[in-house]
Amino acid sequence: MTRPTGAPVDEESCQRILRAIDIIGVRWTGPILLAAARGARRFKEYRALVPGISDPQLTLRLKQLQGRGLIERTVVPTTPVRITYALTPDAEELISVLQPLSDWSARHLPHHDT
Question: What CATH number matches the domain at 29-107, 1.10.10.10, 1.20.1420.30, 3.30.420.40, 2.40.170.20?
Fold first, then answer.
């Protein structure tokens, strides 16, 4: 097995990892971002793509992700008003990191909650 190489672990690198985990470690973040990776979506589409999430939870997470600069909310002035949510470039980069994590999970973690 190969070991990661690079800079030694120090306090600053630990803090960077903790900041990232503070974002992706919040429940529903990963599934919402993965759903957004398929293109801009309306609220009801996210609700359908993320099983088990409630409307208040989805509303809160979308607002939080928007505040973090990971989701962009677009209001289209039609009748009725159309609102879509899409990934920002920063979130697209984050998705490239989450996919290998998802792949690893599929290989090494059980398919049920324990």
Answer: 1.10.10.10
